[in-house]
């Protein structure tokens, strides 16, 4: 997978390059900037309501962790599939010098940066308040990054193959719900465990946690690579009417 720019664009002045990224941020849509913070805010509000209503510290901590590990990755995946499928001028990209893959890659990059900044800040604020959202140190990044990469890769791949935001969002939602419902099946099965999204919130960060995170990251990267392979053929994204 290579989202790097063509050699001809590498000599473009920095202000111009920045304007390109700002343009792609706008093209990614408002959801790319709103969905991740909305997901984290929802979890924080729910945790706050539980706290003021007399809930236990464990309940509050669990909700804060679920927001980081489960809700935020789902929001990011939904944004990613819309980035891949909703392009009003897809046929125009066939005649442009910049490959369609690079354009989509920039927009997904915007989503990734926004998500990383917000999730890192969220985890830091939660830690400052005395609550825990998994292991400390650099490993803390894997609490949200691993499920986000896997679910985003899955969403982007389904979206690129089906060319349908409805089918892609349905598939993502079904997988997310299935893992929530059949937790024991995923945790207890050696083949399914590496793709279990909610390992930290359901079983903690003890034995098997690192393997699960590595499995999620590896699977997510492979699906993103497969998505890139599909997007190198932008004509695959055209409907019969556009073709």
Automatic annotation (TrEMBL):
Keyword hit for Transmembrane: yes
Transmembrane feature ranges: 28-50, 62-84, 104-128, 140-161, 211-231
Keyword Transmembrane helix: yes
Keywords of the record: Membrane, Transmembrane, Transmembrane helix
Protein's name according to its UniProt entry: ABC-2 type transport system permease protein
Source species of the chain: Asanoa ferruginea
Lineage: Bacteria, Bacillati, Actinomycetota, Actinomycetes, Micromonosporales
């Amino acid at each position: 997978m290579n989202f790097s720019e063509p050699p001809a664009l590498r000599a473009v002045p920095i202000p111009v390059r920045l304007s390109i990224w700002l343009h792609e941020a706008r093209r990614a849509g408002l959801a790319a900037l709103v969905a991740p913070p909305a997901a984290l805010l929802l979890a924080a509000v729910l945790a706050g309501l539980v706290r003021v209503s007399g809930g236990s510290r464990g309940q509050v901590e669990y909700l804060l962790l679920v927001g980081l590990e489960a809700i935020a990755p789902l929001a990011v995946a939904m944004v990613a599939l819309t980035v891949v499928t909703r392009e009003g001028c897809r046929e125009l990209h066939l005649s442009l010098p910049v490959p369609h893959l690079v354009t989509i890659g920039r927009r997904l990059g915007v989503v990734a940066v926004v998500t990383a900044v917000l999730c890192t800040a969220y985890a830091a604020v939660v830690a400052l308040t005395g609550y825990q959202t998994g292991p400390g140190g650099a490993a803390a990044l894997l609490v949200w990054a691993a499920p986000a990469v896997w679910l985003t890769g899955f969403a982007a791949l389904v979206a690129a193959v089906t060319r349908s935001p409805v089918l892609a969002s349905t598939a993502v939602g079904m997988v997310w719900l299935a893992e929530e419902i059949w937790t024991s099946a995923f945790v207890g099965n050696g083949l399914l465990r590496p793709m279990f999204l909610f390992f930290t919130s359901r079983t903690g960060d003890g034995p098997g946690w690192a393997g699960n995170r590595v499995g999620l990251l590896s699977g997510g990267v492979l699906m993103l690579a497969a998505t890139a392979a599909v997007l190198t053929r932008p004509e695959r994204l055209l409907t019969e009417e556009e073709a």
